[in-house]
């Protein structure tokens, strides 16, 4: 499954026109777990050892092609420091998907991830698709969070779960694809409850609406 | 010191730092800091040492393939190059000068470890200086280099056995003195045997005598005056603890030294400048350290294929393929010919500018700052002048500010910034007292942020840089308990550390002075109203200077909360690289705390065309990955905007500045009102002075009934009730108002809206912004307030001739 750098949908000649769906996705998680690195890997295929910390939030887009649909992700990469917490609702409000990231070498970040999941379950759109990413899987030698523990937690809460590495690219595209697959894409399912997006008043990050 | 006119004045030598095998990672998962970066960080301190018996270090350069080049002052020739013998008086004098230099180093906790006859230099007048005495210090005791330190015959027994502290230098010093008396030791022996010889000395009763005997120079040794022999023997004790210290040696040798040193007058003109200045100017004039090294074959350019390893082991280490020597004892020398030619036409008079002399005007002033910074002659004049002013600080503070407004020479930027921030007093002592070590809960965040903070900069990416940044942050947090660590504080501290790498206390003092001035209350635990106010003001300034852009951004619901928080929270230090930040901050420190708002507008202005043709997504993408911004242009524009804006329109409540209680100056409104306003308000006193200077066009939007009774002299009446807000065309206002506004725009006047109710003023001013009218603001308090305070501005308009509304 290929992702497409240019950000436009690939439409092979002669093939029937594919549907283009736009989804808002937000990344949440403790500082330095690798949120920005995951996005950079997914969007530009790069990894920077010295990735700058994120203040406020950053916005990027990337398109993936499924069999019959093109999914365009509008990705909000948020700041991880607890102090910036009050800004987070501005970004996850109206999001159809979220990736909650922790660092497998640091138990505290897993705890923080659970809190994010709880907050999303309470405050975000009820139909939001949540994925849990255990990042830095290349540092398995320093692992502090067991795969099984996280898997069990994800199962209990109905989350997608993968261990990823922004450094080696392992599972990075896969987790975004898994989300794309799980997101409802039919127009009939529309409305705020499904893939479509409804813009609440005062919902700052906004753009055009979903399926066209 | 005597500098012979065409002689060499600095020299460079080169060596390789250790290569970490393969892709090794540290415990935090990040790659290990390259050795060359560590060396660069360590060496910074050496650049600041000054002592008459030490050659001043001028530069440490990191090149490809972990190569390091060290640039240093050089004089005369080395002891090794002297073929004739010295008299005992001369030896004692040389010894005293060497001991003085070493004594100074030891007091700074710096061990030489590589003292030898080829790094003790003597000039024609007999002045002695140690050369490249910092190898041990900069390589962290040799840890960061792949070759052993020091010449074998000067190594003390304990060093050979793998230990040793500063007293090893005393041993080497003893060997130097002994060689001066009886000739070179262990010549024609290879390193291995030399080291073995030295170790056999362990059993000798009197080491010096034993060495002399070994060399068949016992008689010669016995002819050395006893006083000198005593000194040599005090140095060559087998047990390090038994050896004399340099302060004792200096004491002993001073008593023996009888030589009258020739007074050498400080050279006049160019050579009288500080070496650092000369080196800097020499580089600007085209001097190139690397090319000279290549010419002298100290750097060889061999094709990469020849330097490829023969084999790479699984652990990443390599076999074979090394090129050239890891450490070359040779040095390349440089003269100032180039610089002298470049500055030859400067009259001697110009070297000594007088404080109160009329300022010279240089042609270069009209060029962009980055070009001025590379202009040899311009920098020469600027540096002379700034050094003069800095010398007189704090009395010269106002002169420094005035000069800094023109530009700041990079070489003295750290000093000038400190002066602009008003740093004085015993900052070392204050900094010393702060606890920078005790762990706190914030440490984790600081620890993960520092390795992501301006790491393209070698200084900040090294271990030393990391450690100092952490200390600075901890010290700042402890000193400001009302504040907390917000991500971004690291970036904010970085420029101060970068410019004060060897003066941590001053970096701290600058930070401590900077925050209250520019970021008052930004780092409170709850800073949301402070930031919201700042962003609202920024948005108003955008509407004031860029109405068309502001309208577009308002319409696509593009709000500053989404992109501008890092801009202002870090004063752009999280957004731009250091070489751009320094130019932004040069201006900031001179112009004051309103400037950043206009810098924000300046950035938008540069992206104007793209933004105007983009929707929400494209706009936000643009800011997530900011395109190249011309900082020189941005600074220039923002200063123009800042100076041409009435002060009160950028008023913020959260500043350190004292707020005037005079109703004429009052301008505060509740926060929710502020957030709803697109146009800024102007205070009565600013309005009054604009009126006096005829710099504003007043639009009175009351009914014509009220207007006809009494109005501001020169104002135009556009009754609000007749305006179609949806129309967005000035024409719709009628001919006279349209002309008046067009004239105001053309003449860069401010358009002030005066009304009886604030709501209508707000709606009307928004309307003008949508019509792309720049410089629109609202008279605070409206007609009533003005009438109550400055009735003299009012008049009764002449009766209208009907039909021309
Ligand atoms: N070894 C390894 N390091 C990683 C990986 N992902 C990120 N890092 C490193 O971890 C550090 C933090 O990564 P960021 O992407 O900046 O983390 P973040 O979650 O965006 O942090 P904030 O912006 O502070 O919220 C960086 O130094 C990255 O190089 C990974 O998969 N493996
Ligand atoms: Mg980030």
Write the layout of secondary structure elements.
The complex is a heterodimer of chains A (212) and B (805).
Chain A (H helix, E strand, L loop, with lengths): L2 E2 L14 E10 L6 H10 L12 E9 L3 E10 L9 H5 L4 E7 L3 H17 L5 E7 L11 H11 L2 E4 L8 H11 L30
Parallel strand pairs in A: 2-4, 2-5, 5-6, 6-7
Antiparallel strand pairs in A: 1-3, 3-4
Chain B lengths: L7 E9 L18 H12 L10 E6 L4 E7 L3 E2 L9 H20 L12 E3 L5 E3 L4 H4 L18 H4 L6 H16 L8 H10 L6 H8 L3 H6 L2 H10 L10 H11 L18 H10 L4 H7 L8 H4 L3 E2 L5 E2 L12 E4 L1 H6 L26 H4 L3 H16 L5 H10 L6 H8 L6 H6 L10 H7 L8 H4 L1 H17 L9 H11 L4 H15 L9 H18 L1 H9 L9 H5 L8 H14 L3 H12 L1 H5 L3 H9 L6 H14 L26 H6 L4 E2 L1 H9 L3 E5 L3 H6 L1 E2 L3 E2 L17 H12 L3 E5 L3 H13 L5 E4 L2 H8 L4 E2 L10
Parallel strand pairs in B: 10-15, 11-13, 11-14, 14-15
Antiparallel strand pairs in B: 1-3, 1-9, 2-3, 4-5, 5-6, 7-8, 12-16
Helix pairs in contact in B: 2-5, 2-10, 5-9, 11-16, 17-28, 22-23, 22-24, 23-24, 25-26, 25-29, 28-32, 29-32
């Amino acid at each position: 499954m290929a992702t497409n750098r240019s950000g436009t949908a690939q439409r092979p000649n002669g093939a029937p026109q594919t549907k283009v769906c736009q989804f808002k996705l937000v990344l949440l998680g403790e500082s330095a777990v690798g949120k920005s690195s995951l996005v950079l890997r997914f969007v530009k295929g790069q990894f920077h050892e010295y990735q700058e910390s994120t203040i406020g939030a950053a916005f990027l887009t990337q398109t993936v092609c499924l069999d019959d649909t093109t999914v365009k992700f509008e990705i909000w990469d948020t700041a991880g420091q607890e102090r910036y917490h009050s800004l987070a609702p501005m970004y996850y409000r109206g999001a159809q998907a979220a990736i909650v990231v922790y660092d497998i070498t640091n138990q505290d970040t897993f705890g923080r991830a659970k809190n994010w999941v709880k907050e999303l379950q309470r405050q975000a759109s009820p139909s939001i698709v949540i994925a849990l990413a255990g990042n830095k899987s290349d540092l398995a030698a320093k692992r502090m969070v067991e795969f099984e523990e996280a898997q069990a937690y994800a199962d209990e809460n109905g989350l997608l779960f993968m261990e990823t590495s922004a450094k080696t690219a392992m599972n990075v595209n896969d987790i975004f694809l898994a989300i794309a697959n799980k997101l409802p894409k039919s127009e009939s399912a529309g409305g705020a409850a499904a893939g479509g997006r409804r813009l609440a008043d005062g919902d700052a990050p906004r753009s055009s609406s979903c399926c066209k | 010191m005597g500098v012979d006119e065409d002689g060499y004045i600095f020299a460079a030598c080169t060596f390789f730092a250790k290569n970490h095998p393969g892709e090794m990672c540290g415990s935090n998962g990040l790659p290990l800091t390259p050795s060359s970066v560590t060396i660069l960080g360590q060496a910074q301190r050496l650049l600041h040492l000054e002592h008459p018996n030490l050659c001043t270090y001028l530069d440490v350069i990191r090149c490809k393939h972990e190569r390091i080049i060290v640039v240093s002052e050089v004089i005369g020739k080395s002891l090794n190059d002297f073929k004739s013998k010295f008299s005992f008086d001369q030896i004692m004098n040389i010894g005293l000068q060497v001991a003085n230099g070493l004594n100074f180093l030891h007091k700074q906790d710096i061990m030489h470890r590589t003292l030898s006859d080829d790094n003790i230099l003597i000039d024609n007048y007999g002045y002695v200086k140690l050369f490249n005495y910092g190898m041990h210090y900069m390589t962290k005791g040799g840890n960061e280099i792949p070759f052993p330190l020091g010449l074998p015959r000067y190594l003390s027994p304990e060093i050979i056995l793998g230990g040793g502290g500063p007293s090893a230098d005393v041993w080497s010093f003893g060997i130097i003195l002994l060689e001066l008396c009886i000739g070179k030791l262990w010549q024609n022996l290879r390193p291995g045997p030399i080291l073995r010889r030295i170790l056999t000395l362990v059993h000798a009763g009197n080491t010096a005598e034993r060495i002399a005997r070994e060399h068949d120079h016992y008689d010669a040794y016995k002819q050395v005056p006893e006083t000198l022999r005593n000194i040599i023997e005090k140095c060559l004790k087998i047990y390090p603890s038994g050896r004399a210290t340099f302060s004792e040696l200096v004491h002993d040798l001073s008593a023996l030294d009888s030589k009258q040193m020739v007074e050498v007058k400080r050279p006049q003109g160019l050579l009288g400048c500080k070496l650092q200045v000369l080196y800097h100017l020499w580089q600007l004039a085209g001097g190139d350290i690397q090319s000279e090294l290549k010419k002298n074959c100290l750097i060889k350019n061999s094709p990469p294929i020849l330097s490829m390893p023969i084999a790479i082991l699984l652990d990443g280490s390599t076999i074979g393929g090394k090129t050239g020597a890891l450490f070359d004892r040779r040095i390349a020398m440089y003269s100032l010919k180039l610089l002298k030619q470049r500055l030859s036409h400067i009259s001697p008079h110009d070297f000594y500018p007088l404080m109160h002399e009329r300022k010279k005007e240089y042609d270069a002033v009209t060029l962009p700052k980055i070009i001025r910074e590379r202009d040899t002659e311009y920098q020469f004049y600027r540096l002379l002048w700034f050094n003069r002013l800095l010398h007189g600080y704090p009395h010269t503070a106002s002169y420094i500010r005035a000069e800094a407004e023109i530009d700041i020479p990079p070489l003295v930027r750290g000093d000038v910034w400190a002066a602009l921030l008003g740093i004085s007093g015993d900052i070392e002592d204050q900094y010393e007292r702060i606890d920078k070590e005790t762990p706190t809960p914030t440490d984790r965040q600081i620890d993960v942020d520092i390795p992501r903070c301006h790491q393209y900069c070698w200084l900040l990416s090294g271990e030393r840089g990391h450690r100092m940044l952490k200390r600075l942050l901890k010290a700042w947090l402890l000193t400001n308990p009302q504040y907390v660590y917000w991500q971004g504080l690291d970036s904010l501290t970085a420029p101060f550390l970068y410019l004060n790498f060897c003066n941590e206390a001053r970096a701290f003092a600058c930070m401590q002075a900077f925050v209250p001035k520019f970021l008052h209350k930004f780092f409170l635990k709850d800073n949301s109203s402070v930031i919201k106010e700042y962003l609202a003001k920024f948005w108003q300034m955008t509407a004031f200077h860029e109405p068309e852009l502001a309208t577009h951004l308002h319409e696509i619901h593009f709000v500053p909360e989404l992109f501008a928080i890092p801009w202002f929270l870090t004063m752009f230090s999280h957004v731009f690289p250091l070489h751009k930040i320094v130019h932004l901050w040069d201006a900031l420190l001179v112009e004051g705390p309103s400037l950043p708002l206009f810098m924000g507008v300046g950035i938008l202005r540069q992206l104007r065309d793209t933004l105007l043709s983009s929707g929400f997504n494209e706009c936000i993408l643009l800011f997530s990955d900011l395109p190249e911004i011309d900082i020189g242009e941005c600074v220039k524009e923002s200063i123009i905007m800042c100076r041409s804006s009435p002060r009160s329109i950028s008023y913020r409540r959260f500043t350190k500045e004292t707020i005037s209680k005079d109703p004429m100056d009052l301008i505060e409104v509740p926060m929710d009102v502020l957030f709803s306003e697109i146009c800024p308000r102007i205070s009565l006193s600013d309005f009054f002075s604009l009126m006096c200077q005829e710099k504003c066009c007043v639009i009175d939007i009351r009914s014509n009934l009220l207007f006809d009774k009494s109005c501001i002299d020169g104002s135009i009446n556009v009754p609000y009730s007749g305006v179609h807000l949806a129309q967005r065309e000035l024409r719709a206002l009628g001919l006279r108002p349209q002309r008046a506004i067009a004239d105001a725009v053309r003449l860069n006047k401010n358009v002030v809206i005066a009304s009886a109710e604030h709501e209508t003023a707000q709606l009307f001013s928004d309307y003008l912004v949508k019509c792309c009218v720049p410089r629109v603001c609202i008279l605070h308090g409206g007609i009533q307030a003005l009438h109550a305070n400055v009735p003299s501005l009012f008049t009764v308009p002449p009766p209208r001739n009907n039909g021309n509304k």
